[in-house]
Amino acid sequence: MPQSFTLIDDGRADEVQATIADGRVLLSDEVVRTTLGWELKPEGLCRGDVCVPVRNRGALAQDAGLDLEELARVLDRPLAIDVGERAAALAEPALDRSAALHSLLAPDFSLPDLEGRMHTLSEHRGKKVLLIAYASW
Amino acid sequence: MALDRCADDPRPFIEGAKATHPSLIDTEHRLAELYHVTNVPTMIWIDERGRICRPHDSQFGTDTFSEFHHKHSEPYLEMLRAWVRRGEGALDDDESRRLQPPVTEESQLARAERALAWHLHGRGATEAAARHFARAGELAPRDWTIRRGSMPIQGENPFGPGFFELAGEGAPEYALEGITPTRDAETDATS
Question: What are the pLDDT digits (tens) for B99-119?
Fold first, then answer.
């Protein structure tokens, strides 16, 4: 019986339906496609033109859906999971983040100000920008 | 960009400074994730073409905490003015790459654990959140956005004994050196 599960990816939390069995979290093909953008095809896990080979298809594709931990492993995505709390978070693969930073192209982002108004880094293209990460702590 | 729990944490600083530049709130640590920031304050220069030309400087805009970190703001502010006015001080690409702190499997898993912990905290699952904050800290012991940043979330004084314990383990890769507890800070922490 599918139940509500929180999947956090790219700074966004999605409420999805998941089947939890024997401590494993299984997501339907539909959930994986709509929230993560990947689809299991004969040639592997695919998103757009990119397909990642799946060596152990049996471990990934269960009767009730795709095993989340196996999915993260195949996609090389770090995964933090709390089955009891029915929540998990994915991070970017280290190699991808490293390559992005080594390109020296400043990653774009949008964040709110005190009034909740969103600001986007790329709106400042053409000017020098000083980014300051600070905190009250 | 304030890596804080909510807008009210940095509000006094932002309103006090009457800043004309955007002052943004980053509760999800997007900046930490995207730029692999592991401590505050961190300064990053981005040129007109949108390229990072001086990554990850641990510098300060004021001398408020100079006695802790032994850094003074004026030389950096002078360097910043020279860059803004005359384009001086930008690093070449190889140097900028060399100064990026390394991203590892562990540091990325730590970010996932931190994101999960923050979400669980938000829904009131405090004990589960504490487990995942702790796991994140074990995976990235030198990441103060995780270890020190999670202190106020968990009701711990970020200027208290826990911080000095953390500082005693050594500073983040690119950041503060030579932090030692002062009598005032220890008194504050126990009061």
Answer: 888 899 999 999 999 999 999
Residues in chain B within 8 Å Cβ distance of A14: none
The answer to whether the CB of B2 falls within 8 A of the CB of B9 is yes
Task: Tell me the chain A residues in contact with residue B46 when contact means C-beta distances shorter than 8 Å.
Answer: 106, 121, 128-131
The first and second tokens of residue A13, run together, are: 């939390």
Token look-up 């300051």 returns A132
Q: Which residue of A79, A101, A113 is in closest CB contact with B100?
A: A101
Alpha-carbon A49 to chain mean position: 18
Residues facing residue B18 across a β-bridge: none
Of A87, A92, A119, the CB nearest to B24: A119
Q: What are the tens digits of pLDDT across the range A85-137?
A: 999 999 999 999 999 999 999 999 999 999 999 999 999 999 999 999 999 99
C-alpha closest to that of A8 among A85, A70, A65, A74: A85
> Where does A2-54 have alpha helices with state H?
29-31
Average pLDDT of the segment spanning A51-69? 95
Non-local (6+) Cβ contacts of B134 within 8 A are none
Domain count, chain B: 2
CB contact under 8 A, A121 and B113: no
Distance from CA of B184 to the nearest CA of A (A): 17
Residue B3 lies inside a defined structural domain of this protein: no
- Cβ-count burial of A20 within 10 angstroms (0-12 exposed, 13-18 middle, 19+ buried)? middle
* Judgement on whether residues B85 and B33 belong to the same structural domain of the protein: yes
pTM here?
A: 0.89
Chain A contact set for B107 (CB, 8 A): 94
Q: Are residues B92 and B109 in the same domain?
A: no
DSSP structure class, residue B51: B
Domain assignment of residue B114, given as a range: 105-190
Chain A nearest-CA distance from B65, in A, is 12
> Chain A residues with CB inside 8 Å of B132's CB?
80, 82
What crossing angle do the helices spanning B161-168 and B183-190 adopt, rounded to 10°?
Answer: 130
